[in-house]
Amino acid sequence: GAVVSQHPSRVICKSGTSVKIECRSLDFQATTMFWYRQFPKQSLMLMATSNEGSKATYEQGVEKDKFLINHASLTLSTLTVTSAHPEDSSFYICSALRGGAGNEQFFGPGTRLTVL
Amino acid sequence: SQELEQSPQSLIVQEGKNLTINCTSSKTLYGLYWYKQKYGEGLIFLMMLQKGGEEKSHEKITAKLDEKKQQSSLHITASQPSHAGIYLCGADSGGSNYKLTFGKGTLLTVNP
Q1: Interface of A with B (CB under 8 A)
Q2: What pLDDT score does B94 carry?
């Protein structure tokens, strides 16, 4: 299957700082990527759809100024958590949509964010 | 919005036993995806179903989508400890945005 990477895998930061998470599709181009958030023992919640070359589309209840998304190339999308607070601590997972017959989504390994 | 109910929420089986996980949608499914997740890790794509009555198999895992396209089941034959993890079903609403809605997952434990 296709490979999607995320960096960093873990990050610990102080409250009030900003954290950038990268999502890369390593062996295919992805015009569309998705960012999810997962709380312990809960399912994935879609935060936003990242479209290459255009603004991201945010789900209801997700603050776009809080979670900045940039999809500057066909293989890279970034999520920046601005002015992070402890309640932002979570597991963030991205996925990349590979076009073609199946339109399959391939997921990254996730990033564990802990805000102190 | 589309909701997915997975059952059971958790399952403990003895190695070698068969098991089934179900995923029921409140709306007709355009596409149904099954993923496996180890806790704290990313999702591994298992299978995608789109047609009513479709059935796909990979190694010891079989997934089916009913004719009405509102329910899917994932069946594991002769389970092994390597099958342990969280199984998530995801639904494609059919729009051009390809957004997926996920169920809450089923935690599978396989005891040796």
Answers
A1: 1, 4, 6, 32, 34, 42-44, 46, 49, 57, 91, 93, 95, 97, 102-110, 112
A2: 72
